[in-house]
Amino acid sequence: MGLLLAVIYLIFISLGLPDSLLGSGWPKMQMVFNVPSSYAGYVSMTISFMTIISALLSPKLIKKFHTKWIVIFSIMLTVFGLLGFSFSGQYAMLFFFAIPYGLGAGAIDASVNHYVANNYSGSVMNFLHCFYGVGAVISPSIMALALKYARWNEGYRWTAFLQTGILIVCILSLPLWKKNEEARSDEIADSAGIRETLKVPGVVLTLVAFFAYCAGEATCFLWTPCYFAGTRAGLSDELIASFGSLVFGGLMLGRLISGFVSNKLGDRLLIRIGIIVEIVGIMLVAMPIGGYLAAAAGFVIIGTGMGPVYPAIQHMAPTNFGKRHSAAVIGLQMASAYVGSTFMPMVFGHLQQNIGIGIMPVYLLIFAALNIGMLELTYRTIQKQPR
User: Fold this and answer.
1) Number of compact structural domains in the chain
2) pLDDT tens-place string over residues 85-130
3) Which of 22, 38, 172, 180 has its CA 20 to 30 A from that of 7?
4) How far, CA to CA in Å, does 57 sit from each of 54, 61, 209, 247, 290?
5) What is the CATH number of the domain that holds 344?
6) Range of the domain at 288
7) How far is it between the farthest Cα atoms of the chain?
8) Are 55 and 314 in contact (CB under 8 A)?
9) Is the pLDDT of residue 60 over 80?
10) Which of 91-116 are b and which e, b meaning 16 or more Cβ less than 10 Å from the residue's Cβ?
């Protein structure tokens, strides 16, 4: 069981690896492709749209295939997408390779989150998502090294090689999953579908909350390096690319801390504390302080506050809505989250192009407020339902 958990942690490192590459490499990629800065949003939107499709398919996939096979096939898709990006010589080519890039991420996310939510504690869930942050922090550093010593293409290629190593470990770990296969078959056989699950009170509210959370998170992932490029003069390409790891580093820290305290505080209190911390970070970024250190610290604090929100909402799914609905709820949450990831960074891209990228803190604050508001309504709705 311990070895299997270690493999699951490694799987989430692989899930985080591709997510921060586009934001870190885009300031340079934009110049190479000779396109406006907002065009990053279209690529990000395509990746997220593919993730929505795979997340909506995940309840059926979970019913039909064991988690281990979903994971292995999905990592293969992301490796193909990363290699495709690395060989893309024109902007249009990115859209073709964004298809496997996004499909792989959604299937891993939904299936492994469902598996952990039903089999492990909230502490394990937070540590799991902390390892997602490890992967997301590593890749901007890879991109920064590529920009310094090679080209942006190598950042994607080197990440694909690392992802391939993780794939090999997952293939070697296949026998570790056998112990859980029989129990899992009985549990999944009676799981509810998406249509039935959408009628459960509180489900739609939590989907809106997930949309708001990922709208803010994805905007940070994609636009943080560009925020510094647009508001701080005289920074090197390598330094700007490295800022892509700020929010991811904060996420990792927030989830690491939450892993130690989540079983004592509970999911709801963790979320409330997290969003308050996130708002403090947004305020720090918004302050007109010279240099880049205060804003950099603000983005780390934003990530730290965001840290427990995602895993806590996922971990609450079986408790709030029952194990019968948990696979569909988590799949719907993934889809709703990636609707936010798909459209809202693109919307921000157009806003910053017309108003200025300094609008970013206000944009993030709106979604933080929507996130906590919808979750509080969800709790009240659930409490009114008979048990």
Assistant:
1) 1
2) 888 888 888 898 989 888 887 777 777 777 777 777 777 777 777 7
3) 22
4) 5, 6, 21, 29, 48
5) 1.20.1250.20
6) 2-383
7) 62
8) no
9) no
10) beebeebbbbbbbbbbbbbbbbbbbb
